[in-house]
């Protein structure tokens, strides 16, 4: 059995006696040059010509949010109350890639007696990766990291699963060969006594690590350390640097080290499988691989007047042999053959105000990734900072942490005179999604089935997006190494209740991450035309701004589940109709049916002509109500739907029913300060969202689509009832403008009611909280958020 992706492999390593036609056992065994000495095989492997065009090209993206954990902390030594909270978080991430050209080969001579034995006389193989890994590591924020509190020991590790990159299956699956890759991340902390390490600031480093020009032979594994250089059997030394943006803030007892690394492993897996009843005589064949781990270690110290960080980066490369007992005497073997560690410049020290003592020039620091949007001023402690803030790149806000360890984070010990937290609380995590809007019907916004069975009794865990659907390569042949497609979103029904009748339309329901945090529904894949994702563009409790984002937001859940803080989790969203369904029923029941309306039609007329009549005009294809509801947006018209924050969406539905979305009893029960301001923010975001051009245009499209239906009905009705004319389309325009005015007017009234009922805070931060409320409701020159509670935009046929 011979297999390789190197041209000329057969002629270079296999002795085929010329002219011999007889293929007896001795001839086959004698084709091995070494007659038992694998060194001869290794010499043959080394003489092969390795051409770029014949290699397997592998690229492993290493852009990952490795760790993020935030917490609400006391800023004074007493239980948390409405005056004594602050937000802290610590984030670790990496950016980069590993580009590899992979060559491999494997040869084996064996005899198989069906039903009796499978005897390997000799086997040998090699794996040869070439290429480079280029990755930068980032550490930012404030908190105490203690990885020793994880359930995995002192180092937390996450493997993302083996993925096939090439291979073949021979003759009905008797033999298969799978070339594969696997990536992992790891994080560790310590101070040589305990694992807890306080950190406050930002640190960034970069390493460029070469895979070398070196054949790793099996079964021996790596037996030498490659020499330095660019020739055969050598490896270029690592290039390392650190950022000039590094910054430390003084923390008492700030000492220890934090290390983050990533490993890429590539290899060749060999297997054989015969048909029954002979299949059990075949054992496992070799799994040969090579791994490269690159890492950054930050050593921290504090002298009492300054904080210092020393940055070092390194590479460890290993050979791995698994499942080789059938072919070789060794079944498992790992060997280290590259162990390099280099300091990135000299120690960086900072005064207690966070300023560097001396500026130093770095070797390749100019090549480090620019940190867009990172502020040089001190951190705003009015919120739990998100990863993008800690690390200077909002891209990380769209990622889930690869490593989850809620016990690994704790609060720092700092000067107690710090601002309380504003923007920390997740009301949906603590209090649920709030009351359902009228149009959502008895089944709620998700229909009668959630996407996955409720798991409230199960500890919450985090899922990495890159892990989804990965299949371990050992589960079968190459044909099984593919990404599994996630479940399809459920279909929910939007009801409209009118004059004792109910009509519904189906629409795709966004998964309920509040109830089912581990949902694997792939809404992006199956609903690409739905507008998404709309949520706040600022974490500040005084900003109601909303914009469209590429992915859902992450929130920090400080509630306890099974004795542990939940931690970071996906935010709560719902599929939303910009034009609310209950507005249709309000138009017919409260306006068309109004006794003061000169063109009044009672409910009996509405049921007969609007709800029950399936042919109200030529080519209608449904009742007037059915046709109007189709204009809202549904499974067949998803581009009129949007995904919006669940709590604000429910308030929007309630407010559109001319009911009180600002529940005063709920508001009164909230804690003063952060919770009450966040409730007001959720209310205010209704109008920020509604006035976004794409959302308003969807509202207008639905409005005009329904107006067209009413115009068609009017023409058909008037042609048959000359003495009883209908002008529903005309009433539709005037009623909608007045309805928007009422919604905005009620919104302003309800928001001001919340402001007037806010709980006052005394003590040290009373003025600070008063300033927050003033910013939201009273700031001059159009700067207050309250001024944006309006719905005065125009549409075609709606001025």
Main structural class: alpha+beta
Query: In one word, what is the shape?
Result: flat
Strand proportion: 25-35%
Mean pLDDT: 80
User: How would you describe the oligomerization state of the chains in this entry?
Assistant: single chain
Count of DSSP-assigned helices: 15
Total domain modules: 2
Quantity of strands, as a count: 28
Report the biggest beta sheet as strand number plus sense, adding barrel if it closes: 10 strands, antiparallel
Q: What is the rounded Rg?
A: 33 Å
- Please bin the fraction of helical residues: 10-25%
Poorly predicted runs: 16-22, 77-83, 358-382, 437-485
Distance separating the two termini? 79 Å
